[in-house]
Amino acid sequence: MSQPISPELREWLVAQLAAGHSVPALRASMRAAGWHDSATDVALAQLEAGFPAAEAALAPARTEMPGPDLDGAPLYIDVGDRRIQVLQTMRHPRVIVFGNLLSVEECEGLIAAARVRLARSLTVETRTGGEVLNVDRTSDGMFFERGENEIVARLEQRLATLLRWPLEYGEGLQILRYAPGAQYRPHYDYFDPNEPGTPTILKRGGQRVATLVMYLQEPEQGGATTFPDVGLEVAPVRGTGVFFSYDRPDPVTRTLHGGAPVLAGEKWVATKWLREREFK
Ligand code: PD2
Ligand code: ZN
After folding, report:
1. Confidence (pTM)
2. Which of 47, 64, 126, 201 is most buried as measured by Cβ atoms within 10 A of its Cβ?
3. Burial of 116 (0-12, 13-18, 19+ CB in 10 A)
4. Domain tally, the chain
5. Residue nearest to atom 2 of ligand 1 (CA)
6. Is residue 14 situated within a structural domain?
7. Which residues line ligand 1 (CB under 6 A)?
8. Which residues sit opposite 33 in a β-bridge?
9. pLDDT digits 0-9 by tens, 250-264
10. Are residues 131 and 260 in the same domain?
């Protein structure tokens, strides 16, 4: 899997290709200029081999992205009503683990309001046209409207400040409950540009650009949020959360992630997805 290359280099490569320079000629002139960047090598090799992934690696990455201000490597970020802890960060994929995102009362309040509205996720089976239980996601779930109750509204304001992204660009909060044995198999949260239904989905707010999974109740065992491409597992500790962002809808972001099976107890999470535009 190639890393994304810098916007400047991408722009230059695209301009050179558009001007009719061949990939081997580009490679030679970059080597001569002292480039020994493995990400570039991989992108060029893929381009040469005609891999579609190379196009994605060279596709324009979004420049304005949600995320906290980590200048000066702060241990805490003040968001007005709370001091959020920065527990762990990773560059590629962009992952940040936060502590003290929600109080115990907020976690319990969200669970109580969601519990009575949970439903097992059903999906349409294209083969028979019938509805089936989704084997990839064995949790129960529901969505809150944005600003639906006091806790939801307060949390959404907090996240908008923390992640420096307009509240209106966020989807309504999703709540999931995982019973023992339930899991969420690895997936990407962005909408696959190659799926026929995606253009319709994108009319409302554009692409997803980031996800924050917040842990409302921890199981006794299991239930980590996993990032298989990089071997990362985030423990589902109550009140904490894992943020990750993806600047293009492509696996080069390394944001494949899943919810490992809950082995004992119940896991509850709240997921906030951020779109590139207002989500009406
Ligand atoms: O509950 C999780 O750990 C999890 C894992 C992967 C949640 C989501 N994805 C999601 O809500 O998209
Ligand atoms: Zn997900």
Report:
1. 0.79
2. 47
3. exposed
4. 2
5. 259
6. yes
7. 176, 184, 189, 211, 213, 225, 257-259, 269, 271
8. none
9. 999 999 999 999 999
10. yes
